[in-house]
Amino acid sequence: MNKKLIIPLTITLSCSFILQILTLSLLKFVNINKKNDYLVQLNLWIWIFCILAMAFIITILITILLKKKNTFFVCSILCIIFGIYLSLSFIVVSYYFGVPNIIIGIILLTIGSIYINKNKDNYY
User: Fold this and answer.
1) Buried b / exposed e across 83-107, counting CB within 10 Å, b at 16+?
2) pLDDT attached to residue 32
3) From start to end of 17-119, where are the E strands?
4) 67-116 tens-digit pLDDT
5) Could you tell me which of 32, 76, 101, 115 has the fewest CB atoms within 10 Å of its CB?
């Protein structure tokens, strides 16, 4: 992957990591006045969502650091999968954190598809 795609990908992944940390830390303040079983279950799903998102971020960063030809292809596939995962975050996470996740998901989808489109001759 060339520097034109690595730099925006790294910036997007760091923004996503910061957003997941903010989601976990501000979760109590968003739902402070509401106490019922539905919100407890929703908080559990948000924790699972954020932990899986952080696992995706760490996996993508590791594949970027390996700097081999096939790992960039795997990284672009992971970017597309993670972009779809973040685009569906509006279902689990509230709209405070869901809208930025959707924007980051669209950016990751774009970066992954640009890399695959530019290098499709090498893999077929």
Assistant:
1) bebbbebeeebeeebbebbbebbeb
2) 60
3) none
4) 777 888 888 999 999 999 988 887 777 667 788 888 999 999 999 999 88
5) 32
